[in-house]
Design brief:
Elements (H helix, E strand, L loop, with lengths): L2 E5 L3 E2 L5 E8 L7 E7 L6 E6 L6 E3 L7 E6 L4 E6 L8 E9 L2 E4 L3 E5 L2
Parallel strand pairs: 2-11
Antiparallel strand pairs: 1-3, 3-8, 4-5, 4-9, 5-6, 7-8, 9-10, 9-11
């Protein structure tokens, strides 16, 4: 059974930091590109960051460059998103996604709220 379970979402003040985790099971994690997406109320889901299967290459949305860092640990079947200098516009449900060729899996999401 394929599972992607996100955790680490919370309420944080502007300028604060959070680290999201996504634990994978039921598929060959190390063969998949992993991504973080987010969806704010009333908006479309958008790509935040992605990382190749080996972790060598990463990609970020312009809005998070220099503030967010994606990483993965293939030994632990996990992908992470370190989020620094958070802004109210970062408020959203954050999802992790696994993709390999025609196979795509999504997690259930974790809520991040940035507010004073």
């Amino acid at each position: 059974q394929v599972q992607l379970v996100e955790s680490g979402g919370d309420l944080v003040q502007p300028g604060g930091s959070l680290r999201l985790s996504c634990a994978a099971s039921g598929f060959t994690f190390s063969s998949y590109v992993m991504s973080w997406y987010r969806q704010a109320p009333g908006k479309e889901r958008e790509l935040v960051a992605s990382i190749t299967s080996t972790g060598i290459s990463t990609n970020y949305a312009d809005s998070v460059k220099g503030r967010f860092t994606i990483s993965r640990d293939n030994a632990k079947n996990s992908v992470y998103l370190q989020m620094n200098n958070l802004k109210p516009d970062d408020t959203a449900v954050y999802y992790c996604k696994a993709i390999r060729n025609y196979l795509t899996y999504w997690g259930q999401g974790t809520q991040v709220t940035v507010s004073s």
